Amino acid sequence: MSFKKETPLANAVFWAARKGNLALLQLLLNSGRVDVDCKDGYGTTALMVASYSGHYDSARELIMQGADINLQRETGSTALFFASQQGHNEIVKLLFEFGASTEFRTKDGGTALSAACQYGHSKVVETLLKNGANVHDQLNDGATALFLASQEGHVTIIRQLLSTGAKVNQPREDGTAPLWMAAQMGHSEVVKVLLLRGADRDADRKSNSSARTAPQLFSRLHIKATVTSSRSSSSSPLHSAF
């Protein structure tokens, strides 16, 4: 996270929040000379900084001093998004305790849940789902949280999402299904889990450029699955794996 230069006091608040220097943060906030929701040129607040950096006590102090939990940065990110992205589950819980919303999106359609799934933070995913995060939300390109977890190989999170009702065959806008992406990335355990949960192994992909290179990637997988249709189908990711 980077910041544009602002007033010296605001910069000091950002520094204290980033370093977790609670004493300095309290001193600055109690001086009455700096707004708890002061922002840099990108719309970054001290609470976002503390949440990103994982400093629970600093985040709590900012909240108790009246920080607006749901302010959005220029990119659309919130304190909850940053805490989720970085895997700081206790801060995620703290933010929910004081009214954080899961509804806010970044400019590319990202949510706190999609960030946690992409970066593999299963405890955060559990907390988000318990607090109303929508498992069906999609990025602007159509990628779901399940798609992102499949792409990155996060098996535990995939199980969590599927148990909460995620659609196993929901493709991205370009037609790429989670199973295809998992196979392309070489995540054999993910492929097995998706198959067991009903993924369509004959799901096609619309992009010819990726289809040309996929067979080489699939060949690295060692997936033991029953083949019930002809291996001549070049559009199936699993057919290409055998």
From TrEMBL:
Positions of ANK repeats: 42-74, 75-107, 108-140, 141-173, 174-206
Annotated keywords: ANK repeat, Repeat
Domain of life the protein comes from: Eukaryota
Protein name listed in UniProt: Ankyrin repeat domain-containing protein 29 isoform X5
The organism of origin for this protein: Cyprinus carpio
